[in-house]
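User: Hey, quick favor. My workstation is busy. Could you predict this chain's structure for me?
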Amino acid sequence: MVEVGALQYQSQLGAKVSYSQRPSIARLFVSFLRLGATAFGGPSMVVYIRRLAVDKKHWLDVDAFADGVALAQMVPGATAMQTAAYVGLKARGVIGAAASYLGFGLPAFLLMMIFAAGYARTSDLPAVVSAFSGLQAVIVAVVAGATLAFGKTTLKGWKSAVLAGAAAALFGLRVNPVLVILLAAAGGLMVIKPRQADSSHPALPTRGFPYRTPLLVILSASAVGFLVLFFLDRTLFNLAILLSRIDLLAFGGGFASLPLMLHEIVEARHWIDGRAFMNGIILGQVTPGPIVITATFIGYLMAGPLGGIVATIAIFLPSFVVIVGLSPCFDRLRTSAAFTRIIGGVLCSFVGLLLTVTVRFALNVHWDLPHLVLAGGALAALLLKVDILYVVAVATVLSVVMFA
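Assistant: No problem, here it is.
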């Protein structure tokens, strides 16, 4: 673990900024809980995590955060959730990663449990969708603002812009995300200039595997949990196994999970019907957090509150273990000039992913003058660096008043 207090990092404006002291576990949890309450827009929240962890709190430097984004993009799971875990991991180890991960995802989980309970009792979803209709337009603004912000700091020339555009086109055509990332990595190796190493921030060797013990504890506890479910509730056991497998295949973010869920849960096993599944996706879009929180909705409909809890753990835990387990290997590679070119290409593909998500979200909005005004006002506020918490809070109130 790098000693934070003694190091400095180069900010985006070129000024040297001293690291603050390491955050406490409680501070990590509360900071990401607050951010998670406004985590609309899926992978776009990576930009706001950067503002929190790099610009405001100085928990990581710019290069280390870029490495984390690249790693989160390359492994399965929801990109923003993985990035939150990476920040906590670098700040306070595995416990810090768990605190950041739980804090960031908890608002989405609680809100989806409330929505699922209401839906199970009344199925009166149209009122909810109507009330949040305006918020869907604001989500488009959030993702668009994140695309502009991340693209500004990532794309350093026309070659990287071409890489990002090509990745966006491939994501838009629904090419396998793993293939898109590999192609972007190859493109980066050929055309991206490696970033200059900062002599004031030397890479420290990683001795052994620093996270072996906590990962063994997590894996052992998971095995016990699966055994308990196997003997007590075979339906929940099958659901947990299925969602865990889907999470490990979700390369390219939470959106990659949805086709797998649709096929396995609706078409193959008929655990819920197609209408309920689509309603769960709608709720996943209008709640904060990754859209894969739809799994919570599915679990609740199948087995009540316990089902929602089991489904949530199953859809998030495997990818958390992956990013913690691969981080030390990634740290060893990041000093390689060739590897930094590869990372540059992967980050370009992330800009392309954000652009694709912006378009997909925009196509799902019924655009009229009120929606355009809400989206335009939200985008302007975000570009003026208004805190996203206030933007989403005001937009929610206006949406309920205008569209409910």
